[in-house]
User: Fold Crossover junction endodeoxyribonuclease RuvC from Actinomycetospora cinnamomea.
Amino acid sequence: MRVLGVDPGLTRCGLGVVEGGGGRAVHAVAVDVVRTPPGEAVAQRLAAVADAVEGWIAEHRPDVIAVERVFAQHNVRTVMGTAQVSGVVALVAGRAGLPVAFHTPSEVKAAVTGSGRAGKEQVTAMVTRVLSLGAAPRPADAADALALAVCHCWRAPMLARMAEAEVRAAEVAKHHRARLAAARRAR
Assistant:
C-alpha cells in the first residue's frame, strides 16, 4: 500500500509518501514541505497547496491519502488554516478517486512512538528510525507527514478488519431479530 501523508498547514504543509508491505515493513518514498507566503491571499495559498498535492498524486500514485484530523487549538487562525487545507486536500483526493483517511494527532503519535502524548522530537526520532532515514526529516511538518503515512499503513488493516466485523455483526443481529420476530408470530 502506498500512502500520501499530509500534515495540513497554510504556511507549511508537510507531504510524505510511504510504501507499506506486509506487517510493519515500511519505507519512505518522498518527503517535502509546501510553503506559502503569509502575505498572499488565502485563495492563492490554498490553490498552491492543491497544485502541489495534485502533482504528488500524479508523480507518486498513492492508494490512499492520510490527513491529520483538525483538532481544537487556542489559536483560531491556525485552526482555520489547517481546516481549509484539509478540505482542499480531501477535495483533490476525491477528484483523483482516492480515499481519504483522517487520523488524530494522538493516534499518529501512539502508532509511531507507542505514546499518544509524545512530543514532536520523539515523533521525528521514531520516524527516522522506523523508515531507516539517514537524517531526520526537517521541519517537523515533514516528519509529521511521514508519521501520518506510517500510521495509516499500520492501522488500515486493523480498521478494515473492524469494519468487516461490524458488517458481519449487523448481519447476524438482523438475522437474529428476524428469527425472534418469527418465533413471536408463531406463538
About this structure: The first strand starts at residue 2 and ends at 7. The mean pLDDT is 93.
